[in-house]
Amino acid sequence: MTPRIATREDWLAERKALLAEEKALTKARDTLSERRRALPMVKIDKPYRFASEHGEQGLANLFGPHPQLLVYHFMFGSDWQEGCPSCSYWADNFEGIGTHLAARDTALVAISKAPLDKLLAYRKRMGWSFPWVSAGESGFNEDFGVTIAEDDPEPEYNFRPFTGKPGEYPGISAFYREKDEVFHTYSTYSRGLDMLNGAYHYLDLTALGRHEDDLPWPMAWVKRHDTY
Hints:
- Helix content is about 30%, strand content about 20%.
- By secondary structure, it is an alpha+beta fold.
- The strands form 4 sheets. Strands 1-12-11-4-5-6 form a 6-stranded mixed sheet.
């Protein structure tokens, strides 16, 4: 449904009223971000190993020279031939930001279950350049709640009991390193990932917005960028 037509004066009055709400939301988001940063951290004791372009690496190696690491849990199962279309939509937002993150002492890497050769081939196809490593059977995906095993007696996703199908799910996790010790500081899943998708935020500024209401599911329209 398109917006009603109004005079410039009426539009301006309503826009200013909305601006007050937007400012309140911005302040509330700043407060929430402070609470997020104030969460305690948990030491990672498990010796995870990942297949990378530079050989086998531990979690601490993925930081590079930085004390902070962001991991995007990219849905790409071991037997899949392509990465998830929705995760690919998110990953399109990663290109070019690595330099800016590095300026704030932070690295970004994608981690998936699929073998490294599949990940690198798909990355080349999609024209991406961000680091991408394979967790394989290290248990990393399972431990961080993005691979739901069929034999899991009490599956959880997004910190709640999970009743969906076993398989791969998206998320992002943040880590902090002090010398050789690595700590988990934050993870978010599901709609918590919306803040990472610039395209969605651009659409949210428009009159039609995401216009997903009449679709079978919200992201039914999303395709890999080379298949539209």
